[in-house]
Amino acid sequence: MDISFLGGPQPQRGVGVVAPFDFALDRELWRWVPDDVSLHLTRTPFVPVEVSLDLARLVSEHETLREAVRALGAVAPQVVAYACTSGSFVGGVAGERAMCTAMAAAGDLPAVTTSGALLEAFRELGVRRIALVTPYTESVTSALEEYLGEAGTVVTGRAFLGLTRHIWKVPYRDVVDMARQAVIGSADALFISCTNLPTYDVIPQLEAELRMPVLSANQVTMWAALRVIGAHAVGPYQRLLIESAPVSEPAPAPLPAPEPASALAEDPPEEQGGWT
Fold it and tell me: Which of 48, 204, 216, 259 has the most CB atoms in a 10 Å sphere around its CB?
C-alpha cells in the first residue's frame, strides 16, 4: 500500500526539560504545550534526600545540569528549561542566572529556569506584591521569600503545607484552601510554588474567585520556555497567557462566575506521578 500521499509526520519544535528525579507531573507540563511542540524530559540522578534546601542544592549542581542538557542535545531541542522552583531559587538571583549560563553553555542553546521564569512573568504583568502558596516546609518557603525579596517582590501573605515528600498527591482542595489563607493585604497576584504540585485546572477557578492573576511553577516554566522559541502556551482563562498572547489571537469568552466553594474543593482526575 502506497502511503506517500500522507506527507507526514509534521515537523515538531522541541523543548528540553530537566526535572528533579522525583518529578511526577509530566502530563501536566504537556497540557500547556501547543500541538507543534514536543517536550523532551530528562531527570537528575536519584539521591536519598527528602524535599529540603539540601535536596534543592543537590539537584541543581551545575555539573548535574550540564550532564542533563548534554543528554537532551541528542534530540536537538531549541530551548532547555530547568523545571524546579526550589532548585533554581536556592542560590539567590545570581545563582539562578549562573544556572542558566551553565545550561546554555552545555547545550549551546537558550536556557530558562522556573524561578527565573517567575520573575519574567512578574515583569510581564507588572506584579510587585504577591500572595505565596507552597507545599514546602517553613525553611524552604522562607528561602523562596528571600529570593523574591532580593528580586524586588514583596510577599503580602503566605501559606504552606510543610511537606517533604509525595507533593504530587496534594489535592486541589488543599491548594484552594492555602490560596484563601495567603491572599491578605493588597497583592497584585498569587504564586503557587513547586513544579510537583498540580495546578493546571485550579488556576482559572482561583482567578475567578480572587480576581487577580494566579501563577504557578509549571505554568511560568512552560510559558517562558515556549516564548523563547516563538510559541505560545495554551490554557483556558489564565491571565498570564491572555496578557502575553499575540495580538492576532482572538480574545477568550468572558470567564464564568466562580463555582461555589464546595465545587472548587472537588478532586480532579488524579495526576500521575515528587516535588520541586
Answer: 216
> C-alpha distances in angstroms, 157 versus 40, 75, 185, 217?
36, 42, 7, 18
Angle at 193 between CA 144 and CA 64, to 5 degrees: 75
Q: What CA–CA distance (Å, rounded) separates 57 from 49?
A: 11
Cis check for the bond before 45: say yes or no (omega within 30 of 0). no
**Long-range pairs, 266-269, Cβ under 8 A, ≥24:** 266/172, 266/173, 267/171, 267/172, 267/173, 268/172, 268/198, 268/201, 268/202
Residues 6+ apart with CB under 8 A from 178: 133, 159, 160, 161
Residues paired with residue 111 on neighbouring β-strands, in sequence order: 80
Q: Which positions ≥6 away from 64 have C-beta within 8 Å?
A: 44, 45, 58
Q: Taking the model in full, what pTM does it have?
A: 0.88
* Encoded amino acid at 115, one letter: S
The string of pLDDT tens digits covering residues 102-137 is 999 999 999 999 999 999 999 999 999 999 999 999
Residue 209, pLDDT > 50, answer yes
The H or E element that residue 80 is part of is: strand 79-82
C-alpha distances in Å from residue 159, one per residue of 27, 84, 162, 190, 272: 26, 19, 10, 11, 25
